[in-house]
Amino acid sequence: MDISTIGIVGAGQMGNGIAHVMALAGYSVTLSDVDQDALDKAVALIEKNLDRQVSREKISAEERDSALSRITATLDIAKAGATDLVIEAATEQEAVKHKIFESLAPHLLPHTILTSNTSSISITRLASRTDRPEKFLGFHFMNPVPVMQLVELIRGIATDKETYEACMAVVDRLGKTAASAEDFPAFIVNRILVPMINEAVYTLYEGVGNVRSIDLAMKLGANHPMGPLELADFIGLDTCLAIMNVLHDGLADTKYRPCPLLTKYVEAGWLGRKTKRGFYDYRGDEPVPTR
Ligand code: CAA
Question: Does the Cβ of 219 fall within 6 Å of ligand 1?
Fold first, then answer.
């Protein structure tokens, strides 16, 4: 199956990155959101990130301009639905995702492949509520999308071979690499990464280290590009908590219990970089630990 048009639902952190790489690879992209402000911010950010790639001589100015010309931002979800491949990239809340798939349903083309960029929710369950579980796949990008090489592809119980292969061809065209994961809570990357982050929060909660020493220890002691608390702020503490809850509920093992301190930060609305406060405060020139 030949894919040339992509609909992306959700213009947040992941949606704008996905639109960026798809447009750069030559796909015609429709980016939809319910919030005009989010769309405006997404387009401005894509422009900024493309400029950065131009200035580092990763792409030419012509490639940047033609990528931008291939992106249409819209409040109309119908336009994102009437494409060859839809990628839902909304917030990590199952009810929101079900609602989006319901709104898309009347607008999908008969051949449209439906995918979700969910970082943890069951693909089989999301697919079962649509009219096309066989054409449904988990299409999970990593943040920042333009930089990270991996895409996890997750087949639900009903996903057919043609759908999987069509999405694999898209990953190839993006110049990225796919890892196949079975449809179990949080798949591969987040099954391993987010409990590590949660453990870092316990390490802080129990006073084993402070924010700086925990991040320093993992950067210099394990060669991680970012410390776990810095990474948690980067991913979003609400997303980290949502993933821990999916693991805890889905695998019913106490080893996945979310750290109460992580819950407290989320309750405070201190969600990390996107709200300018998390384990670090980003409101000044330099990030400063909040504990
Ligand atoms: N768009 C385009 N390019 C970007 C970019 C963006 N948003 N952000 C960074 N870059 C580029 C820079 O231009 C730079 O390119 P060159 O190497 O060509 O010069 C390169 O990325 C490195 O950037 P910087 O030098 O500015 O910064 P850095 O060296 O500190 O690296 C980082 C930044 C790549 C984000 C690095 O810190 C890193 O790899 N962090 C870990 C990220 C990670 O683990 N992501 C996975 C999160 S988990 C996830 O996403 C799954 C989930 O579902 C929660």
Answer: no
